[in-house]
Design brief:
The chain is mainly α and about 575 residues long. The chain has three domains: about 230 residues, Orthogonal Bundle (Clc chloride channel), CATH 1.10.3080.10; about 200 residues, Orthogonal Bundle (Clc chloride channel); about 100 residues, CBS domain Like (Alpha-Beta Complex). Helices cover about 70% and strands about 5% of the residues. It is built from 23 helices and four strands. The chain has a four-stranded mixed beta sheet. The two termini are about 45 Å apart. The relative contact order is 0.10.
Length: about 575
């Protein structure tokens, strides 16, 4: 039976289209395949390097704690510190703070430790680059801080240290912005994976927190680097989880889910209190430093003195705090212990960060969340014993909820909790708590701890590219100079300058565009400000249409990258 003419024509058309697609695919493979393979190889190398950087950073902290405190198993540091003389517990953080203060004073311009916020800024505004010298010094300072009793986390310094590696590679290969950001994501993913033995969460953390998009083109190299970082971790520590849970972890009744909704709300408020308390403490410390004339190199030592005094009575605040977190997850603490330890850990982490000693906020938020969740669970199960599961399930959910709210990363934090504990059966409770905590916290701060840090520096990334792209363009790059064939008349420009209507050549479009809105002009003069009280020198004119074109091109490029 012969085919109808219409069917035959349809099949021929489909065959031609398929052949054309194959030819085009082969041509793309020949033209771009080797470069893509080469890029994946670079991603693998960066993943291995970042994995080793995270491993050496962790081993360096362990070596310092072993040397300074004399503990054999650093996982039991808090218990061991209870037997040490009080003056050692007091003096070790002070000495560590002094060393950190000198390092930051002499080798960074602002005596400030670099962290995840700076990596996010580098991804958005600096073509995937971060400060390299300051980053290396910050990593060393944070290692000393955590090794000498600072109460913060190791993930922030490790993420920035990995970003230094990718920035160096990007400079070597002269990578453009898209490639630089992808390599930065690879380094971050590998560092997080190597730190927590969490390859899935490491990849998603890089996409969700640092790059802040889920572009398909960046997924494969980031996953390759993340797996490489995990392999580095497992070669040293084996395929083990950071925390071990009791075997009876399970959600007993679906009627218990409303309790986890309430836990999510409470966790979100706790996270907001922790973040705002940290920023308030930083403002207070800045004010006191100005009023007293305290040298900036002495500020970490003062913070170390406060930490040491606190640790004499509560040594569980020393270091990352995984021993206490494990105790919370296994229900080994009483209600009053969980509440007091949570409050003291938040205070200690605030002192460490506000005192500019270094370290990150992820590990403190895990500990704070686990303790808060355990306290909530002990209360909830005591009130409703007949419809409640294990109290430690609340600790697990609280750990994820507080950390997710602090990081502004519900997806990757949920996965990190699963991979840290190896327990995938309690996902319903964790997801419910995480969703509510991040929803609450994101309304009360600028999305996360890191983005709020940047907002406090007048770097507006929380609202998205439409808010921060204007800050990337200098007026001098967009203006029309005086010798331009379509520049504005010099007489009108000079008249506007006399009226005080002009913009500086070094200003950004973020500052220049409001001038057009306020004056209704089509162009404004661009001047070079003279030192002192000298008159400004006319350089050219910034046209409203040119500024809008530059902004639109940047928006289009960002959208193309995020959807590629």
């Amino acid at each position: 039976m012969t085919q109808p003419p219409q069917s035959k024509g349809f099949l021929q058309t489909q065959a031609r289209d398929a052949a054309a697609a194959l030819r085009n695919g082969w041509r793309v493979l020949l033209q771009r395949g080797p470069s893509q393979v080469q890029f994946w190889f670079i991603a693998l190398v960066i993943g291995i390097a970042a994995g080793f950087a995270a491993l050496f950073f962790r081993m360096g902290i362990n070596a310092l704690q072993h040397t300074l405190y004399g503990v054999e198993d650093v996982r039991l540091l808090h218990s061991f510190a209870e037997s040490l003389p009080w003056y050692l517990i007091l003096l070790i953080p002070v000495c560590g703070g002094l060393i950190v203060g000198f390092l930051l004073h002499y080798f960074t311009p602002d005596a400030r430790v670099r962290s995840v916020a700076d990596v996010i800024e580098g991804a958005a505004l600096d073509n995937g680059r971060v400060e390299q010298r300051a980053g290396l010094v910050s990593a060393l300072a944070s290692m000393i801080t955590l090794g000498s009793g600072g109460s913060s986390g190791r993930e922030g310094p490790v993420v920035h240290l990995a970003a230094v590696i990718s920035s160096r590679v990007s400079d070597w290969i002269k990578a453009d912005g898209v490639t630089g950001r992808d390599l930065l994501g690879c380094a971050v993913a590998a560092a997080v994976s190597a730190s927590f033995n969490a390859p899935i969460a490491g990849a998603l953390f890089a996409l969700e927190v640092v790059l802040r998009h889920f572009a398909v083109h960046s997924f494969a190299p980031i996953v390759i680097a993340s797996v490489a970082g995990t392999v580095i971790n497992r070669l040293e520590f084996g395929d083990v989880t950071e925390f071990s849970l009791r075997p009876d972890e399970a959600l007993q009744f679906y009627v218990e889910l409303p309790a986890f909704l309430i836990l999510g709300l409470v966790s979100g408020l706790i996270a907001v209190a922790f973040m705002r308390g940290t920023f308030w403490a930083e403002d207070v410390a800045n004010h006191l430093q100005r009023k007293t004339g305290l040298p900036r190199w002495l500020r970490p030592a003062v913070a170390g003195l406060l930490l040491g005094a606190l640790a004499i009575f509560f040594p569980h605040i020393i270091g990352v705090g995984y021993e206490t977190t494990s105790a919370a997850l296994t229900g080994e603490l009483l209600l009053y212990e969980a509440i007091i330890f949570a409050a003291l850990k938040a205070l200690a982490a605030t002192i460490t960060i506000a005192g500019r000693m270094g370290g990150g906020v992820f590990s403190p938020s895990l500990m704070l969340g686990a303790l808060s969740g355990l306290a909530f669970g002990l209360i909830a199960t005591a009130i409703f014993p007949d419809v409640s599961g294990s109290q430690t399930l609340y600790a697990l959910a609280g750990m994820g909820a507080v950390a997710a709210a602090v990081l502004g990363a519900p997806i990757s934090t949920t996965l990190i909790v699963f991979e840290l504990t190896g327990d995938w059966q309690t996902g319903l409770a964790v997801m419910v708590a995480v969703s509510l905590s991040t929803a609450i916290a994101s309304r009360l701060v600028h999305r996360s701890f890191f983005l709020t840090q940047l907002e406090r520096r007048n770097i507006h990334l929380a609202a998205g590219p439409q808010a921060y792209l204007l800050a990337m363009f200098r007026v001098g790059k967009v203006m029309r100079p005086m010798d331009h064939e379509n520049s504005a008349p010099q007489e009108k420009l000079l008249t506007l300058v006399e009226q005080g209507i002009y913009t500086d050549t070094n200003a950004t479009l973020e500052r220049a565009l409001p001038i057009f809105e306020n004056t209704g002009l089509d162009y404004v003069p661009v001047v070079q400000l003279a030192p002192g009280d000298g008159p400004p020198a006319l350089e050219g004119a910034l046209f409203h249409v040119d500024a809008l074109k530059a902004y639109n091109r940047a928006l289009a490029a960002t959208a193309a990258e995020e959807h590629s």
